[in-house]
Structure formats: structure tokens, C-alpha cells
Amino acid sequence: MSDLDFFFNPSSVAVIGASDSVGSIGYEIMKNMLDSFNGEVYAVNLKQRPVFGKICYKNILEVPKEVDMAVIAVPAAIVGNVLEECGKKKVKGVVIISGGFSEIGEKAREEELLEIAKKYGIRIIGPNCIGVYDNYSGVNTIFLSKDKISYPCKGKISFLSQSGAFAGLILDWTSKERIGMSKVVSYGNKIDVNEADLINYLDLDDNTKVICLYIEGIRRGLKFMEAAKKVSKKTPILALKSGTTKSGAKAASSHTGSLAGEDIIYDAAFKQAHVVRTKNFEELFDMAKLLEKGIYPKSDGIAVLTNAGGLGVMTADALEINNLRLATISEGTTKILKERFPERVVVSNPMDLVGDADKERFEIGLEALLNDKDVGLIIVILLLQVPTLSFDSIDSILKIKEKADKPIIVLCTGGEIVSNYVKKLEDGGLAVYPTPERTARAAYALINHAIVRGDIHRQSEENIGVCKG
Amino acid sequence: MLGGISIDKVKKILESVRAEGRTALMEHEATEIIKAYGIEVPKEGIATSESEVLKIARHVEYPVALKIESPDIQHKTDAGAVFLNLSKAEEILEAYRKVLENSKKYNPNADLRGVIVQHMMPKKREVIIGVSKDKQFGHVVMFGLGGIFVEVLKDVSFRIVPIEKEDAYSMIYEIRSYQMLCGVRGEKPSDIDALVDMIMKISNLVSDFPEIKELDINPVFVYEKGAVAVDALIVID
Lengths: 469, 237
What we know:
By secondary structure, chain A is of the alpha/beta class. Chain A is 40% helix and 17% strand.
């Protein structure tokens, strides 16, 4: 089931409905495919006018060579015929961009497609979607022009979206946020390939370290849960589910029935399948850009190293709200640090290096915390506006990070000048956040996944289970 | 829990319910079903005569509650067909007559199958364990503390069937009123393991019988040792 590789790494792709008229969907898809995809691209269109100087075939059967995958962008009424031809051509998978199916009540058209697909063993993504974007293979069935949107840099985050518009938006937005993306799939009406299939596929993908989902509704809940439960043990899954405010309470004769709203059930399903549900898309990608690094803590103890006292305290608060634990700094570490730090630095956690901290003080603190057994994760709060830190100070932090076997998160914010520092930190491979709350949420996702993976013993959850007092 | 589960017994009860064209089970039927899955219930029996009612009351031990068993009376309290805390023979006999009399008055056409004579468990911390059926996810199990916690504060947690032991524990820990089960004001803590056991059994029951559409065990009395399902409601498709 999970062998969907021909959608992402085909050797040849046919664009059915390819067009030479600027601004049309068939034009944009051809342009994007030719631009980034290294395999063969064939244009297919009844009109047979050349597209971007390429021969245009009347139908896919006339293409002289094998075709792995086809993108279908023709009117709904003839998608069935086109699919039949794809079947005869032994195409392995089709992305049906065309709309005009169950979303407007035309369920019968979908049944017809499924029947044809079954007959020939073709897999379908869509219909009514924008399809597949693969930052590594260059497959791009998305009809958004590079004149209008920017595409993100390569990364290890894959994103599955029920909404095509939102998938397109995320590509553009992540490019601005400098968040690296791997694969983006908009699967529309999901008559065949659904979330569960894609999750299973991405779990085996070397270029995916975290799976993000945008979900409006899941049709086959138990299939999804089964896949998510299995996959999330290795690859973290984050989900944004919309429609949370809709009250799902229905007429029922039992208490349970009247309380079991739709949203509360999704909550339960995500919890059981170890899928972290995020509040909004900002949080989704805040978490994803940390999980993407694939470095997990071995202890749930968090150390906070700061040259800004206030932010340190705020971060400690935010961690507690997220049920996270501040590490207990060992006597050994404390002794070393007391010897090396000036007296005004109180060695504790959060560790306030005070306002005149220079890069050496940060180095000493970081090295010591990295060697402390209870510290699983370090949050470095950098107030770069102070005179004792410079652009170069970042290099020493990056150097330590390179050797570190523990995850390091940076909280750093400010105005336009500091944003250049932030860029340098991010380019150096660090996840940087602008507020204590967002830092803590990302830390939560990381520790949560380390627990699910079995790297950390479930200490925090057991603590909840123990009766206090 | 001693004794294996009895799938056949549940099948038989559900068949007879369907044969009568009903979807709502009577209380005693529901009790027998959860009992067949090893869930602890108060001792009870159905009396159809005055001599029987006393015999059963002695057998299940005082104090007892008397309730009508009829497919046509859903709201027994409204019908005046519930009498509680009976410990003397004459009280029991009088209650027995009144249960029948009030039921007939409430619904003259009601099919009265008998009177449930149930041992009254000592009151303890009350919880609710329920099941409902979702279109996308199938059976979901709910857990919460009884009374205001569920009704007013809606302090409940849900998990989707099949439930693993770990899920059952986490759904108990998850509710805001969890500390109430830890023993407040000098009380002894409640038996969490017994609740987990009951949740697992309910999950198994509805997995085996997908036709169960709704199930409420309300209340469950949870003690320092053990938990007892005092009242069960089951509706099938």
C-alpha cells in the first residue's frame, strides 16, 4: 500500500491538458515541471499545439515511451476517458487536478474513476487538488507560477494538506520563514490515496524527518489511527485540524453520546496515535522545524542558559505550563561553573549569565550543560543587543552546536538588526524562536516525541499519575 | 476477575432484544451483558411474585433497591417505579406493590416483566464510563467523575476503541478532577487499576458487538479496592 514512490520519483511524467496559453492551469503545470523536474515530461492535449517547444500528443497512448505518472488537468466530464487511456498506457499513478466531483455533489463521477483505477491498478491522488511537490526530485504538479509564489529551500519537513489553497500558501510562507520543506501533497477529495497511505509512504522516506498534516475531516478514522500509531513511533506527526469550534453534540439518550462532540473525538484519536495537535499553523511549523533536525533528548530535563534574566523566568513559566521539567544541575557541574564564573552569576536553572556575559561565558555554560547527565535539552536565550556580544559570538555557539549530541534551541528576538543574527543562527542549523511560549511549545513537541520513541522514560506522565499530597 | 467472558450469553440477550423489535435494552438485560464480560455488578434478581421478591432480597442481601423492568418504561424515577434503601420485609413487599401499581398508572399498556431486586452498594466515589459511536472512528469510550463533574463541568476524557491499557490509564489521569480519585479530606485513594480493568472490558465488549450504539455505566462506584457498575444503559443499532 505504501509504495507510492512513482508519484514522487517518476522517471517520466505526462501532463494531460498541457497548454500554451499563459495563465492556464495546463500552462503553469508544464512550466513548473519543465523548470524543476529532471525526468521526461510529455505534453498531452487534444489540440496538439506544441507547448514550450515540446511536441504535444493527442492522447497519452501516442506517447512513444513509458509513462510512470500523469497529471490530469482536463474538464471533469472527460477525466474518466483520460484515466481509461492512462490505464491502457500502464501509467502507475495519476494526479487529478480537475474539480467537479463530490465537492459539488457529483459522487457518481468518482465511483466511475475508482472503477477504472481498480481495473488497471492505477493509484489516484485527488481529484480536486493541487497534487504533489517534491523538493528533491523536482516533481511539481502545482499550478502556482514562480512569478507569484516563492518555493521553500530543501528540508526534511513533509506536509500533507486536505486543502490545495493552504498547501500552496504554505509553500510560499515557508519560503519566507526559511523553513526547509521536503514533500508537499494536496490530496483533495482523496478517493484513493488518503492520509494513511501517505503517512505510511513518508515514514520510509529518507528526506522526511517530520510529517505535518492539515486535516478538515478524516473519512476512515481507524485506518488513519492504525497508520499514525505505527508511523509516529519513528517519524513524528503533527496535525492541524480545523473546524474545532463546531459543536458536534447530537441528540442521544446517553450522557456519553451528548458529550462526544466531533472535535473531542479527534483529540482522543490524535492522542492515542501519538499525533501532536497544534493550535494553528504557526505552531505546526514551529514544532516541525525543530523535529526536522532529528536530534532527540535522552532526558526530559531542560536547562535554560540566558543573558536576559526576565526572559529566563518567562521561559521557566512557559515550560511549566507545558508540563516540562527544568533539569536539576548536578553538584559537579555547579562546582565547575562556580569556579569559572564571576560571583554575580548564580549557578542555577534557569542560569542567568547576567547582562555583561560575553561569548566565553556562554561557551563555558553550554559545554558544562552538555556534559550534565540530567540535561536533555538546552534552551539558549540570546539577548544580542548587549555590547558584550557580537555577530562573531554566534560562531562560537554554532561551533559548539556542531559537536553537541543534545538538541539546542535558541530564543532570540529583537528588531531589524537582530533579525540578521537570527538568520545567521538559522543558517547555521539552529531552530530559533521569538517568544518564550513558542520556544516552550517546540520543546514540548521534541520531548513528547522522544518519549514516544522510547528515548525518554515517561517520567512526566507518571508524575501526573501519582496522587499528590 | 474470575470466570471467562461469555460472548454467547451477550449474543443471546441481543438476539431476544432484536426479536422483540427493540433497540433500547432493559436495565437487567444491560446488567447481564456487562456482567458477562466480567464487570462487577451488584447482586440482583428479577421478582415476579411477592414470595419471590423476599427470597431474592434475602439472597442479594439488604439493603435493596426495587425497580421496574419494562421495555416500555425508560424513565423509572419519573414513573415512581424506583424504591431505594429497603431493609425490612414489610417495606419490601409494600415497595413491590407500589412499583407495579405506579408503573401501571404511568403507562397502562406497559409490558411489565418483573421487578428488579438489587443489592444497594455502599455509596462511594462515583464515576461514569460510557461508549458512543462515531461515524468516522467507530466506538469511543468516555470517562469522567459522576455528578457535577460530568454534567456541569463536562470534565471527561475520550479514547477510541480498541483501547490499550496505557490509553485507559491516561484517560483517567487526564481529567481535571483526577485528584478526587486520589483521596481528598482524609479519604483513601480509589482503585484506579479496577477502573482501568473496567474500561478495558467495555472496550472488548463493544469491539465484539459493533451493534452497540450507546452504553452508559452511570454510576460506577469505585472503592479503595474494586469498582462496581451500579446502573447500565445500552442501546443497539
